[in-house]
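Because discrete structure vocabularies remain unfamiliar, it helps to consider an illustrative case, giving the amino acid sequence and backbone structure tokens:
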Amino acid sequence: MKKALTIALAAALAGGGMMAQANQQGDWILRAGATTVDPDTDSDDIVLPGQEIGIDGPITLEADVDDDTQLGIIPVYMVTDKFAVEVLAATPFEHDIAAEGKGEIQGLKLDAGSTKHLPPTVSVQWYPRGGQDGWQPYFGIGVNYTIFFDEDVDNELKETLGVLIPGVDDADLDLDDSFGLAAQAGVDIPFGEHWAVNLGVWYIDIDTEAEITAKAGGSQVAKVKFDVDIDPWVYNIGVAYKF
């Protein structure tokens, strides 16, 4: 996905516009398409007791978050011919989370859980060709607030916790919401008076504190906290309509 979008962006920037479509103050643009969140995950160590499986001392894991694609709905308002405000919105993303072994258990990979999230991002954009006909590249900076919900622990991790900590039969996962900066670049390639193909990419700073609570008979018996930098690249391939 990343390679295809990079090639498409380069071709669009080199090829120029196909039909007239000048952006002007007061215009509304609605972009919609396939939006992919591709995390570049970096996790703190997740330290669990290891004596129950014959390891002398604690075992160490780290989290990994997979990608997901949803419908992106991205309204834009042209404040001037060259500057606009954009909101990145989408249907909820759902990501599977894995726990990967380190040290003595390197190569081990557990299905750890899943989460849903909404990453609304508000950006101020600059259109260097605003007011001119043809293709419309743009660049932006903004802020993101990511809301995590429906966190769930996979049965594979629950069973592993039950082996590592005798008596554990359940577990909860909680992820803190995140506030961070975002940067973006993209292009609208017109193919009619109002329509354009849109290609866009964002880099978003999403950091969260994760908490796994192990339970036995409904009561908490252990808790592990660790920070996860998700920091995804986000890609959109779709269409744009200018009102």
